[in-house]
Amino acid sequence: MRRMLFRGTGVALVTPFNRDGSVDEQKLRELVEHQISNGTEAILPAGTTGESATLSHPEHEHVMEVVLDQANKRVPVIVGAGSNSTSEAISLTAHARAIGADGVLSVAPYYNKPTQEGFYRHYAAIADAVDIPIIVYNVPGRTGANIAAETTIRLAEEIPNVYAVKEASGNVPQMMEILRGRPDDFAVYSGDDQFAFTLVALGGDGVISVVANEVPRSFSDMVRYALAGDLENARKLHFRLLPLMNANFIESNPIPVKSAMAMMGMIEEVYRLPLVPPMEQTRTKLRKILTELELIQVAVK
């Protein structure tokens, strides 16, 4: 019987950088504290939102270690450990287990576009090599290929340490097929903030969130209301936060969320190429939304 890694909101944590482009360890620790003190149920560093694609292997491992050290077992830490190379994914997953991670988020192999059997064997090989809970991450808009509902259910039924799926396909019928066919001990998390309310209302277990970087308290409250069946209060918070959820994807994630966090004084606004700062119209829209949510104040002229 699988145990649930978390139920509620897990934050896909940004990686803060110093002005010279190095990882800002102090800010990273502060972000972990901010998440825990504001009720986030799990922290997921070194994923897409954490700019893992431009972290070197030593940096990737360092980010994992810092977050685990700062969290200090207060909430589950589930680290990004995916790759389009199965052997590399196994190596990252083995490191995650060695340093005490509670689980790994393992993105579907990107660029090489496996068949459904290829997806299955990729995760089976990781699970066979490393005994750690695995969350499958399906994000076809990034990877170029979709893990079908049938494959997700097969993984859930046949591989005990595949614990959950982060569904970021944007395909609600596919999500419903997974919810309908999954084993009772297999968790389904939304990988899109704007679908978190819908997925939980359909019986899902929570979300792995971008917007929780900016509004951890109110967004995790929304998810908790929905999980408790208080759909009225959940719906109110969902619609209040929806403009920010959408604005976070005006440009490629994590460009807008890091820009917003910089406006809020949480981090320096530093990206690694090929990511660049947002266009001015994106900043204007973010600033307006943050002001309306009372997360920043408009400067008095």
Strand-helix topology:
Elements: E1 8-12, H1 25-37, E2 42-44, H2 57-71, E3 78-80, H3 86-98, E4 103-107, H4 116-129, E5 134-138, H5 140-143, H6 149-158, E6 162-167, H7 172-181, E7 187-190, H8 196-201, E8 206-209, H9 216-227, H10 231-247, H11 255-263, H12 280-292
Parallel strand pairs: 1-2, 1-8, 3-4, 4-5, 5-6, 6-7, 7-8
Helix pairs in contact: 1-2, 3-4, 4-6, 6-7, 9-10, 11-12
CATH superfamily: Aldolase class I
Q: Which spans of ≥5 residues are poorly predicted at pLDDT below 50?
A: none
Name the strands of the widest sheet in spatial order.
2-1-8-7-6-5-4-3
Q: Quote the CATH topology.
A: TIM Barrel
Question: From the 3D coordinates, which CATH architecture would you assign?
Answer: Alpha-Beta Barrel
> How much strand content do the residues show?
5-15%
Number of helices: 12
* Largest sheet entry: 8 strands, parallel
Supply the helix-strand structural class.
Answer: alpha/beta
Q: Which whole number gives the mean pLDDT?
A: 96
Spell out the helices and strands N to C: EHEHEHEHEHHEHEHEHHHH
CATH class: Alpha Beta
CA-atom Rg in angstroms: 18 Å
* Helix content class: 40-55%
